[in-house]
Amino acid sequence: MAVKLRLVRMGKKKQPTYRVVAAESRRARSGAFLEIVGTYQPRGLSVAEPETIINIDNDKVVAWLRQGAQPTERVAKILKVSGALDAFAASKSGAAVTSESPVAPVAPVAAAVHAVIEDDVEDSVDAAEDDAS
Length: 133
Prior knowledge:
alpha+beta, CATH 3.30.1320.10, 6-stranded mixed sheet
């Protein structure tokens, strides 16, 4: 059984909210999953607070990564921003992981997430232009 950490879309039309879940790789995108490890709200809480919110349980993510789960590209970028990949690398190397709380704080991380996503969009635009040439 190959397990992936991936996004499951929730929310209303044109107002996406995602769950970060551990799911079997052969299941449908929004199908059955094994465990919820966090949430990702790219549009923020409301129009008044439009900053991106990431809430990841780093301990659960590290446990799944230690069992061999593979994050998708987008989830890997989100985990990097939340610090879960750093915690996994530290636990893998045997270094002590100091964590104030097991859940990453619910805080606006818009600048970091938008920078990562903009880089991803620019790469795909460059690739499309290369294909068109």
